[in-house]
Amino acid sequence: MKKSYCPIDTFINTIKGKRKSTIILHLSEGHKRYSELLRLIPDISERMMSRQLKELEADNLINRKVFPEVPPRVEYSLTDLGEEIHPFLKGMFKGGIIFENRIASEEN
Prior knowledge:
Elements: H1 7-15, H2 20-27, E1 32-33, H3 34-40, H4 46-58, E2 62-67, E3 73-78, H5 80-107
Antiparallel strand pairs: 1-3, 2-3
């Protein structure tokens, strides 16, 4: 996470990326395994998913827990910081629905 000139920019720069906010929204529903996230977000490649998860972990928004099993099992969950920003992302989600409804009504 890198501080920007404006706190809004810091927030946007931290969560922008291929489906980072979507990953956070899914993790707000509970712990998820890597394969579950891939199923929930089918338009992201495995390589990009892995990259986004690493960046979210580096920014302390998600936890990655490796279970000592064979084969290894990994689960992702939100950190306290991730939980704290979740309401803002949920608001952005609702705002997106408002815009999509407006676009749909203009098309008719």
